[in-house]
Amino acid sequence: MTKEFDLIGVGFGPANIGLAVALEEFKWEGSLLFLEANSGPTWQPGMLLDGTDIQHNPLRDFATLRNPSSKYGFLQFLKEHDRLYEFLNLHMPYPLRKEYAAYVRWVAEQFSNFVRYSTKVIDLRFETGGTIAVKASDGSTFYTNSLSLAPGRSHAIPAAFNGLNSKRAVHFSKYNEAIQMLDPFEPGTIAVIGASQSAAEIILDISKRFPEHKLVNFQRNQGYRLKDTSPFTEGMFFPSFTDQYYNLPDHLKDKLIQSLWTSQYSAADSDVITKIHNRVYEQRLDNRQRLFISNFTEVSSATVATNGKIDLSITALETGEISNQQFDLVVFATGFKNFGPHETQEPYHPLMENLMSFATTDDNGCANITRDYRLQLRKAYAGYSDVFLNGLCESSHGFGDAGSFSLLSDRADKISKRIIECTKERKPRLVGESK
Fold first, then answer.
1. pLDDT tens digit string along 405-419?
2. Cα-flanking dihedrals φ and ψ of residue 62, to 5°?
3. What is the DSSP string of 323-339?
4. Residue 162: is it exposed, middle or buried by C-beta count within 10 angstroms (0-12/13-18/19+)?
5. How far apart are CA 190 and CA 209, in angstroms?
């Protein structure tokens, strides 16, 4: 198998799928390879729950905003599967998540010749002369002049669970896999931590699938907050807003993030909030409450009990009182880490560890990213291969660069144009060859 490529993509989720689409439509003729840890194309497999929908307009897909006539758009997917008329007749503002996952898979499969699945990347480093070496867990190493790093953001796990090693304590992205260990006929106890959209969806799913299980949702605040979906707020998903945000000083970025926080995090849609509230009310009415919202509480410590279950020490934030409870399963609906100096952030993605000595950082040691999503290298390494952070730049580029599809096609457009430009400028060189 060829070991040298003009472009290597780490991960083949939405970010790099969008990049593959853009490069094809720009008729780029370079060589490329995507390395994906999963065994096949997937999108949010842990959260494909019955009845759940996506949270963005379906036309914010892999290509439509960049190229409305693209054959890779969501409407083309519906047309090819003979569902366009039926979809237009749905009384739903957004598609079901399982249908959008099928769309993602449909597009990904059209690029299968460029993807090596079941290949986990474990190390990235610059070779002499600036080529990037990409090492996989099976011992193989590949080389490239451009790298698109899109492994997804690191999981944000509450500090109380640091060092806890148990399959009974899982991030919500693994939810569908984790609940397989539960016995629907043997009442147990489940904890969901967080007050996000994902937390709300998981709670409704557990309550439906395991009605006899005791379910406790721990939240630091009063309760679920309504997601901000104002059309003025949604303007943050315009490329012009990304330009504005990127150029703001850090203190104004922080202020803007705070004002927009509930548009993305620690909030949920009205329909799921109402369902949860009504379910609790009805259970109380029937004198058989199984779902409990524990607000103003925080998990202060967690240990694995001798029976394998999870012991939680719970602090009531209002009084400081501490109680202990045991659970069969704990689900963290606590999101992902962005780049930054705070407790729930990280200065750069772990896969970038061996690249950072070549890069510039801010005063907190966090990676500096250019407007076109490149890791900013020090002057001594000008001319080294480009490292694109594809879908990892929320802190520097705004909420549109999170896991959302909202600006995915625009980001793919900018990265693709840089790759095409560099391919023309950069003469082919051997691995390890000096400049």
1. 999 999 999 999 999
2. -70, -20
3. EEEEESEEEE---BPPB
4. exposed
5. 12
